[in-house]
TrEMBL record:
Keywords: Ribonucleoprotein, Ribosomal protein. InterPro entries: Ribosomal_eL44 (IPR000552), Ribosomal_LSU_eL42 (IPR053708), Ribosomal_zn-bd (IPR011332). Belongs to the eukaryotic ribosomal protein eL42 family. GO terms for cellular component: ribonucleoprotein complex; ribosome. This is 60S ribosomal protein L44. The keyword Acyltransferase does not apply. PANTHER family: 60S RIBOSOMAL PROTEIN L36A/L44. One of its GO terms (molecular function) is structural constituent of ribosome. GO terms for biological process: translation. Gene3D superfamilies: 3.10.450.80. Residues 39-73 are annotated as: Disordered.
Amino acid sequence: PPNRKPHSATTMVNVPKTKKTYCKSKECKKHTLHKVTQYKKGKDSIAAQGKRRYDRKQSGYGGQTKPVFHKKAKTTKKIVLRLQCQGCKHVSQHAIKRCKHFEIGGDKKGKGTS
């Protein structure tokens, strides 16, 4: 279709704090209420093999030894929702589309307001 918008990231997404969805843990295996939070990357371990190897290679004289990535193209990240079942506490993750602004449990948009 010629009148389609160009593909781009959504400007704003507002997700409710709870969501009723399927829980696939052995205890539940049914639709239950889930608490929704945003996935956050954990702190990098200094004991990881790659980090130890990198630190060893970097030590001493000789400057930067590995390539530093500069060709960043994306302006947004895909949002990953962390869904925790309120019955059995099982955690599952659900990726949604890209967006510039994301919030959980914000004010609902009423009818007729933009």
